[in-house]
Amino acid sequence: MKLLENKRVVITGGTRGIGRAIVERFAEEGASIAFLGTNSERGEALSNVLKERAVEGQEFLFRPVDVSNTAEIHKFAEEIHALWGDIDVLINCAGITRDKLLIRMEEEDWDRVIDTNLKSVYNTTHAFLRNMMKKRSGKVINITSVIGFMGNPGQANYGASKAGVIGFSSSLAKEVASRNIQINCIAPGFIGTDMTDKLTEEQRKGILEKVPMGRLGEVQEIAAAALFLAGKDSNYITGQVLTVDGGLTV
Known about the structure:
About 45% of the residues lie in helices and about 15% in strands. The chain is built from 8 helices and 7 strands. The chain has helices at about 15-30, 40-55, 70-85, 105-135, 145-150, 155-175, 200-210, 220-230; strands at about 10, 30-35, 60-65, 90, 140-145, 180-190, 240-245. Strands 3-2-1-4-5-6-7 form a 7-stranded parallel beta sheet, with helices on both faces. Helix 4 (about 105-135) links the parallel strand 4 (about 90) and strand 5. Helix 1 (about 15-30) packs across helix 8 (about 220-230), helix 3 packs parallel to helix 4 and helix 4 (about 105-135) runs parallel beside helix 6. It is globular, with a radius of gyration of 17 Å.
């Protein structure tokens, strides 16, 4: 039996990078998945591929939803509840950067990052939590970042958003632990994605000098961590931050 057979999962930011890797790994493990993203072409293409590979009972759907828009999220949640009744796992992976030194940072740079990276976690969790509480089971996995606790110049907005995700998760874990719902975070270090692809060779070299393992992480390694937290072997783990960073924060 596959690890997530008969499980129903919602994943935000599922069309690229870490989110896409999680979608693909969870599909391999038997989950039915509803995933969100802002790029319709990329999302529909991935959905079609997953449907071609699906086994009996597996369902996949993509929706181009703005996770920072509360009304859009609640409309999506209503669709999922009508289709599936409830979900087993929620993974909040949507995230953006708008890097600038604070003195040059515009209010829009701040608001957009906070809304996409932090408010979205409130939006989705608020929309799906009540049904998890009714059935007395569920898992929420929030993708934060090592920047949320170590900081980085030019990323005051990003760092604040990711630190907020950790505080949100710790508090919520205490609220719902008695209902058999686990809330945890994964804090990736520097992972090979389209975000890190934009780094100059000098920037990349500077980063790798700080990482004891001497390499960038792979999106599949974050997906493996998410799979552990989504499965039954993590049932007694809640309110934690699983750091996957090659030793960067040691």
